[in-house]
Structures are given as C-alpha cells and as structure tokens.
Amino acid sequence: MENQIIKVEGMTCGHCKSSVEGALNKLDGVDSATVSLEDNQVAVQYDASKVSNDALNDAIEDQGYDVVK
Ligand code: 9UX
C-alpha cells in the first residue's frame, strides 16, 4: 500500500471535500482518501498495482479541481 499527498487547488468547502474523497474512494485500489481543506491537499492510501498516479489525478480533475504537479 502506498501513501501519497496530492496538492489540489480550488477545494474550499465541505462539498468540495466530499466530492474529491468520494471520487477517489470509488476507484478500485484506493483504500482511503482524506482531504485537508486547510492544507489544500488530499492524502491517499492506495494499491499502486491497481490504480495509477494518473488515475488519481484524473479523478480529482474530473471533479473540477486542479492538481498541482
Ligand atoms: Mo462548495 Mo467547492 O459551495 O467547488 S462545492 S466551494
């Protein structure tokens, strides 16, 4: 299991938090996703053999937020 912190721009309210966490948790291979609005980031625990970094970023961007790369 890998742990990764992804920096994300544009998450400001609780619904943003829910959208991003929900989109990530829906992916096969994601164990947990926790957004910190204060830190503009999401902590993701995932199985790298099942889900790629790009897939994580795409799921976040599909919700309308910008991943800081
Ligand atoms: Mo809240 Mo987030 O009204 O894009 S859902 S700011």
Automatic annotation (TrEMBL):
Keyword Zinc set for record: no
Metal-binding listed as a keyword: yes
Pfam families: HMA (PF00403)
GO cellular component assignments: cytoplasm
Localization in the cell: Cytoplasm
Entries under InterPro entries matching the protein: CopZ, Heavy-metal-associated_CS, HMA_Cu_ion-bd, HMA_dom, HMA_dom_sf, MerP/CopZ
Matches recorded under PROSITE patterns: HMA_1, HMA_2
UniProt signal peptide: none
Alphabetized UniProt keyword annotations: Chaperone, Copper, Cytoplasm, Metal-binding
All residue ranges annotated as the HMA domain in the record: 2-68
Chief location category: cytoplasm
Function of the protein: Chaperone that serves for the intracellular sequestration and transport of Cu(+). Delivers Cu(+) to the copper-exporting P-type ATPase A (CopA).
Stated name of the protein: Copper chaperone CopZ
Biological classification of the source: Bacteria, Bacillati, Bacillota, Bacilli, Bacillales
